[in-house]
Amino acid sequence: MDISWDDARLFLAIAETGSFSGAARRLRIGQPTVSRRLAALEYAVGASLFRRGVDGAVLTAAGERLVPPAKKMAEWAGELHRAAESSDTSPRGLVRVTAAPYMCFDFLAPFSGAVAKKHPGLRLEVLSGIQYLDLGRGEADLALRARCPPNADLKRVYGVQIRNAVFVAKSLKAKLPKRPTLQQIPWVAWAPPFDATPPNPQLESIIPGFSPVFTADNYLVMLAAAEAGVGAMVLGDLRHRFVRERSLVPLELDLGPYATSELHLVCAKSALDIPRVRKVSELLVEELEQAKKR
Amino acid sequence: MDISWDDARLFLAIAETGSFSGAARRLRIGQPTVSRRLAALEYAVGASLFRRGVDGAVLTAAGERLVPPAKKMAEWAGELHRAAESSDTSPRGLVRVTAAPYMCFDFLAPFSGAVAKKHPGLRLEVLSGIQYLDLGRGEADLALRARCPPNADLKRVYGVQIRNAVFVAKSLKAKLPKRPTLQQIPWVAWAPPFDATPPNPQLESIIPGFSPVFTADNYLVMLAAAEAGVGAMVLGDLRHRFVRERSLVPLELDLGPYATSELHLVCAKSALDIPRVRKVSELLVEELEQAKKR
DNA sequence: CAGGAGATATCCATGAATGCATGACCTCAT
DNA sequence: ATGAGGTCATGCATTCATGGATATCTCCTG
Asked: Which of A87, A120, A147 is the last residue of a domain?
């Protein structure tokens, strides 16, 4: 009888979370996988390790005996992980990340601060221009994009779905009807030549005769106008952990088919062979994973 | 960066054995698998853990740091294993194993002794009759057979290839030419109605006019005759660990296409769901695996 | 000096593990 | 009573890890 160390880890995750589903979430694998692997482990061990129920899994006497050594394995696995981290020649250098202006402003800027704190050798250059940058040609290392790249030379590292919401200044919210329609909203949007940039086309398609009260060709100007109570903006609501005093508040408005959008972390195929790019990519994935859960 | 616990185990196996091939043997996986998985681990860790060469693998400084925690994981994995073993409600009861007479005599008898010592609750019944027993109908639980079962209701648990050799008494060897031919050998073989039982058909096909000097319908009688120097016997040479004072010695003779044969551990499909049968099967597999290596 | 025996790395076919979809069951709130 | 939300177990298609085969290299021995 041989117990795979990963099965020991799976066992401990079930024991500590109290359920197969909880273990699945912790280990980032499927619940059916947990169910089957635990069954196989019990078969190999020749004993039932948990009593199953709708309220989860409770350790049996046989299972109780495995917990202390499994916990010790986990402790030393933590040590191993830290030893490996210290081996990781701390990547250093510049990594260029591009995203839509709001994503840069709201997420990538504070994220860059967190990265700099954790990895002093890493510097992020955030490219917020709305013009398309060619990752294949190295114009940026990483990109957060609304669409999955069709190019064969790019790869999608991670993706989340995020809610879009309408934000206004508190002062404007006070002046609006309690349950305003989309037509009743004064909009802040892109001016030409950027009027094909989201969310303009989307607003045009769900608001007949769409006519913004304020347009600009610069994102910060648009944001300043919204914060000044001039109008409302549609913003992606990525529930990241960086708290920023937001002077804009969300409105309860139905955006129809545009209620959500996708956000994809994209790079050139071989970009992740560069340690500093890979590290930033990993950190971004972690952030997006946690944002997904909120 | 997440390190799979099984990758930690693989890393330690390489560190302790000093080579990918050694780790492969220890973990009972393929050497290409070790090579690839270690490469993937190094990629994830962002550091080289071993310097590779034809003399094996030597730990780098980064690799050195992972060894102590990995060893600790192994220690606790051992504890976990022992805890699991103690959970294993020691199987008890009778298990019937059938094999050819020589295999029973030479291997299964001492094996039964070892099993009884290790698992007092287990009893083996060794069925050495040469007539075919129907595992599907439960006439035996496990069988060691020369052929893989074609039946859909049987399964092959393990298989090894074993050498066949000609054995004689020392006294007979002294009387024989230094390099005897097959024709010059006096044979001990099966009498009717068992003359279709191996090795009779095989000897008949490689020795024109095959005519044994001694036949019997009982294996022990045949063995006694061989030991008395009456003639030679073809025996499977399973290099198991049970030492028995052998009064028969091998002859250097080429048996042509019959130089080796296969040995398969076979049972009914659901037999291994029975704890005692599964335990005996596991122990048999262990023995056959070790015999394979010698 | 050639061949054998060891090592690691890579390709590719195969089979095992995974996750999606779903069923069955239970509990709780409405 | 019903629906929502949680649990675990299972079928099946897909993905991915594995090992056999092989290439390449080095060292040792006859």
From this structure: A87
Q: How many Å from the CA of A152 to C1' of C13?
A: 26
- Say if residue A104 is in the same domain as residue A178: no
Please give the residue of chain B at the shortest CA–CA distance from A282.
B1
Contact A65 B88 (CB under 8 A): no
Q: Which contacts (CB < 8 Å, 24+ apart) does range B207-216 have?
A: B207/B182, B207/B183, B208/B183, B211/B187, B212/B186, B212/B187, B212/B188, B213/B186, B213/B187, B213/B188, B214/B186, B214/B187, B214/B188, B214/B189, B215/B188, B215/B189, B215/B190, B215/B191, B216/B188, B216/B190, B216/B191
Q: Within this chain, do residues A188 and A250 fall inside the same structural domain, yes or no?
A: yes
Task: State which residues form the domain around B255.
Answer: 162-260
**Tens digits of per-residue pLDDT, A121-164?**
888 888 877 666 777 777 888 998 887 766 667 788 888 888 88
Does B270 share its domain with B153?
yes
**Cβ atoms of A157 and A265 closer than 8 Å:** yes
Cβ contact, residue pair B5, A8, below 8 Å = yes
pLDDT tens for each residue of B18-66: 999 999 988 989 999 999 999 999 888 888 899 888 788 889 888 999 9
- What domain count does chain A have? 3
Count of positions (residues) in chain A: 294
The CATH number given to whatever domain includes residue B139 is: 3.40.190.10
Pair A16, A44 in one domain: yes
